[in-house]
Amino acid sequence: MTAPIKTLAVASIGYLVWSLLIVIGYQFADVLFQPDMGWKVLRESFIYASILSVSSFLLLLTRPVEEQGNIKPKRNFRGLLKPLQECCIAMLMVGLGMLSYLILPHDLHAAQFSHALLLILIVLIGIDLSTVRLARLTRHQIWVPSAMLLAIFMAAYIAQWLLPHSFTVLLTVASGFGWFSLSGSLVTSLLGKEMGSFALLTDLIREFYGIVLLFLCGRSLPRSVIGVCGATAMDSTLPFIKQNCRSSDVQLAIFSGFILTLLAPFLIVLFASLQ
Q1: What's the sign of the alpha-carbon dihedral 136, 138, 143, 146?
Q2: Exposure string over 1-10, b if 16+ CB within 10 A, otherwise e
Q3: From 98's CA, which of 37, 106, 108, 173 has a CA 20 to 30 Å away?
């Protein structure tokens, strides 16, 4: 591929990322404004997504020894302005998407458009990473998906004291690892529509947490943020990981996301069968 074409492809990633955020906002509004969703489900989903995200983040907060020599000094306040600005822009794009849901027709097939946009972004990311030399995975990187398995047990144990759901139900919901398109439909078929809505909204909010954290601390704490992204690290949040983390972290994101994507449907069915 010629250099000008590659440069153009890489330069367009940022604009497509903003477009994807607008579509995500539209999809979130489509779920949030459903008559049967209710504030009860929204409140429970927000609480559980917060517990899951904090548990995932904290379990991976310690840096691997081999990375500590590459750590740059902490940014001052001025150095934080850029990620804060980017985070605000990202939230603005999501807000525009939600606003567009109130203005535009509700039969725009946003899921198909989002899927197509995501495929284009993944191709462009592949072009950008074509010259990156892949490193061998270390045991510290393998710990990322392993820690996410531990995180769902921690979060479910804590949440059972705060929410009116059993430990196994909470494990079932958490096992989507942010993959809301799977968890919503699969949990609905196994545990009913209310639990399906709970799972879908929990994973959707968790994905938003991941996107916000990527803009705020993707370069300084990449493993923790990739952990919060869960299974989406290999698809829907991958463009944001590419934009806000180092190239070496993209390989970790794809590996962790792939493992969690394989585990998600199996664990959802397993824990649901324990009811």
Answers
A1: positive
A2: eeeeeeeebe
A3: 173
End-to-end CA distance of the chain: 54
**Quick check: 23 and 110 in contact, CB under 8 A?**
yes
33-90 pLDDT tens trace = 776 666 788 899 999 999 999 999 999 986 554 554 454 444 445 555 665 676 677 7
Rounded Cα gap, residues 212 and 50, in angstroms: 13
Q: Could you read off the pLDDT of 98-152 as tens digits, one per residue?
A: 898 888 887 777 767 776 776 787 777 677 666 555 566 678 778 999 999 999 9
Which residue's entry shows tokens 């529509």? 193
> By C-alpha distance, which of 188, 235, 213, 176 is closest to 54?
213
The H or E element spanning position 211 is: helix 193-217
Nearest CA-CA partner of 123 in 13, 21, 210, 252: 13
